[in-house]
Amino acid sequence: xxKTFLFFLALVASVGxxxxxxxxxxxxxxxxxxxxxxxxxxxxxxxxxxxxxNYAGLTTVYVVxxxxxxxxxxxxxxxxxxxxxxxxxxxxxxxxxxxxxxxGENAFTGCTSLTSINIPNTVTKxxxxxxxxxxxxxxxxxxxxxTEIDSWAFASTSLKEINIxxxxxxxxxxxxxKCTALTKVSFPETITEVLSGAFSDCTGLTEPxxxxxxxxxxxxxxxxxxxxxxxxxxxxxxxxxxxxGLTAITxxxxxxxxxxxxxxxxxxxxxxxxxxxxxxxxxxxxxGCTSLTSVTFPSTLTEIKDGAFYKCSSLVNVxxxxxxxxxxxxxxxxxxALTAPIYNDKIFACLPVSYSGEYTVPDGIExxxxxxxxxxASLTAVTIPNSVTGIERETFSMCTGLKSVxxxxxxxxxxxxAFFDCTGLNTxxxxxxVEYLGNGALWGCKxxxxxxxxxxxxxxxxxxxxxxxxxxPGLDFTTCKLYVPDESVEAYKTANQWEQFGDNIMKLSxxxxxEVESQKANGESRKVFRNGQFYILRDxxxxxxxxxxxx
Length: 551
Prior knowledge:
By secondary structure, this protein is mostly beta strands. It folds into four domains: 16-107 and 115-123, no CATH class; 218-340, Ribonuclease Inhibitor (Leucine-rich repeat, LRR (right-handed beta-alpha superhelix), Alpha-Beta Horseshoe), CATH 3.80.10.10; 344-504, Leucine-rich repeat, LRR (right-handed beta-alpha superhelix) (Alpha-Beta Horseshoe), CATH 3.80.10.10; 511-551, no CATH class. The chain has three helices and 44 strands. Strands 1, 2, 3, 5, 6 and 8 form a six-stranded mixed beta sheet that branches. Strands 10-11-13-15 form a four-stranded parallel beta sheet, with no helix packed on it. Strand 2 and strand 3 (41-45) form a beta hairpin. It is elongated. The N and C termini lie far apart (64 Å).
């Protein structure tokens, strides 16, 4: 997992800028300190921040408990953020045991030669990235005073084993990530919270890591079935990431959620029975489980977050319980084996990419999730019920065969790239209820020759609503006509994005009879304006707004 960039961003945020009058930077015993003249305390600090010259050549450091400067005794209470950052020559660190209460974020990041350091029992937390990238560090003793090991604290070190003290309650994300030499972890009962990827890419581990409260990690070398111990209340994010040999999993009914990326790339996992009591499936929970053919949801499930089953390419059929009231986007995107639409009474989640022809979203649906129709290249027409109020991001992305969209007069927003690359779309009617079109809402719709926008006030627009790119060309503003309410023509000519249509912004009452008859002859389904009324043209016939055929 490539998370180094995220670590760098956090490192940037940890830089301090003390410039108060009572702060002075002094040099004592080969170490720089920021002294506070008011409190008579000192903090070990860097020589040159983020520089290869930071304490260049220094091999041994003594951070003393106190020192006298200008006749005043200063107690050293901390090692500051980034203090010995990238001090690549540093081998040994000796820390005074009397007063040090904290070791700052990234204090020894990148000290690639560091092999020995003592942590005083006055320190309660191993801070963010403290020993990140200390690739020569093979052993460390943590005092019993430690209650938290923060994110990235020991990532990319050469630790062979770690005895986490009794009293530690929290382990941060990626705290031991990429510790490939790690073979043994002591995991006390006091730990109740483990954040994402705490032991990710620890390829030397051969035993699961857990206590009676939280399950933290299953080695990626595991092959076959696995049963999470009974009574476990929490499964850490990414706990099973990359367990490509895992074929089946039994989960206890004491958990209430399956969190972020828990089973990512478990490529041999074939079925999953989510136990009663689970209410939430997290972002990318089963992303990339390419052998997963079926999933059983509990009656307690209420929320499925973004990308939960993304690229589960063998998933065939899913029954969505009515208890699910909240869903993110791209949940079933690239689940190409699906054979039936996925929806419940209120939410429409997915149309199989193999679907061909026209489709009507069931009545009563209130929410169509983003990417629900993504890649349905053979979908030709879609009708949306008036219970839906918005078209979410990328809903019809890459529906290249789509020729007709019937949007109800309840739609208020059309979000980011909702109709991305709908190259078969010749015309679209935006009902009067539309108030906003998101960035690239009609991006790459190169075949559009007319747009009917019924809103009297030009809807607000994000950027590039009608644009495209070299790969996905957009519509041609010189030929595409924009029909708007007669009294609104001038308003559209000055409105953001709409003004690009220039002289092709026309009155709805001028919508040509010839164009209408041409569409009728071609048998296309389309909503048009003629003689002051709207009509639907489909299969060579004309219907009024109530669906009655007009002869």
